[in-house]
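Hello forum,

I keep getting stuck at the same step: I have a sequence, I want structure tokens, and every attempt I make locally crashes halfway through. Rather than fight my setup again tonight, could one of you with a working pipeline run this one for me? It's a single chain of 64 residues.
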Amino acid sequence: MDGTNRANIKPGIEVNIVLKQDQRSGKLTQGIVKDILTKSPKHTHGIKVRLEDGQVGRVKEILE
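Reply #2:
Ran it on my machine without issues. Output:
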């Protein structure tokens, strides 16, 4: 699943995100969602989340 729909993302699921500094390279970071930061139901670049380790980025893939 892709990460552009807020309804697909819940705290505790495993995702791949792209960090702000990795947007040009497209490097993905894997982690567990702690908080959902985007308020709108959809976002074309991915829903912004905070991982349990504190990193913030936009969801590119949902792994579960």
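The radius of gyration is 10 Å. If your local run keeps crashing, start a new thread with the error log.
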